Protein: Transposase IS4
Amino acid sequence: MSQATNGSCPAARKAPNKVSSLIVGAKCQAKACMVTDLSECSRRYGSSAKTKILEGVVLESISMKNPTTNRTANHVRARYDLGGGHLKDVTLHIRSVEVVSESVRANPSPAAGLLHLPSPVTAPAMDPALSPPTEVGAATLPPTPAPAVAPAVAPSPAVPVVTTHEVDWFIDDEAVLHPIGQPTPRRSWSIKTPIGDVLQAGSNADKRLTKMDVFLLAFPPESLVSICRNTNVVLEATGIPTTTVGELLKFFGIIILATRFEFESRASLWSMTPLSTFIPAPNFGRAMSRDRFDEIWSCLRWGNQPSERPESMSSEHYRWLLVDDFVEEFNAHMAQAFAPSEHICVDESISRWYGQGGHWINMGLPMYVAIDRKPENGCEIQNAACGQCGVMLRLKLVKTAAEESTTTHVHDDGLLHGTVVIMEKIDNPTRLSQLLVTNFLSTTR
Structure:
């Protein structure tokens, strides 16, 4: 049997294994759930927590010996990008890491080699009155024609990062004029009184404003009248005595005070028996009887809903009429009276719902939302608040896509509907800038 030559040696034809490609600086990939814990993956990546792949850079190849099995295994220490500028160094078993081959690293995407040609800069024209005088008799030279400027090369169409609600979103770092990560000019929050006075932090040092006065500054005054009027319609229909604005404010005070107690039954708040020697009895009956509270509670109406649904109105829109008026009045009032600080915090809240509901039935809550990271299910509310004082600025009820496409509120000009903002940006940039100046008073973070 003849020996194999250099080109036919089986060892020479063998492909390099994963260990040989683990050079420092090589690109690698690993599942996010292997890099960090599952709870953080769920918070960052949502439903893709168990399938998200993270990019990393190899820092070191380590051989570790298991003291139990007395076997040596190869591990990779790499630095992974979790997103948002967060990096994490993790050591994983080599089977949990996928090393990007040299061919992939040597052939970057064609888009990476494109050059952004700057637009030609035109020198400002000089005012004839400021031009230097020419000497008498001097030969006047004809103007030198400017060299022809090559037309700018049209960039190749970019690939959208994501498409949501038929709108393409792209990465454009130059579109943000405010420097990312740079300090933001500080500004103090303020609220305007009905007579035009502006109150800021420390304005009530002399305690001339009561808690009721502060509550009324943030509560839309027209909502008190409309809630009282709509509630009285239901009270009269059921044969119960009507209420007043003063009694309605007392009712709201009882609801707020009830959040300070821990109880199993709401009826226990009217008990006159103390829970212990050190905790006095709630005794809510000093302000309002339990029967009267239950009457107003069962007939309370935040919006104007007709007794019968019009034929041209959807069932979902008809049910949202119970609260739509209050949400619009609150947003309009806060946009006019409150000026936030330089920090605006956005979040999503859940209003717990026990009854029936859903877009698939014509009763109960129109849009029932269940989110894993929320302890309770119910109505989802997207909100924005001042990051300095915590005052709520804006509310938006999460509705179905069909209802969102047919509903655009007048006072916010559709700013909270993403598709409307994108259409304004494409068709009329001037209008978009006016909307941002009018509705967003500071940098949103």
In short: The longest strand covers residues 53-66. Residues 21-106 form a domain with the SH3 type barrels. fold (CATH 2.30.30).
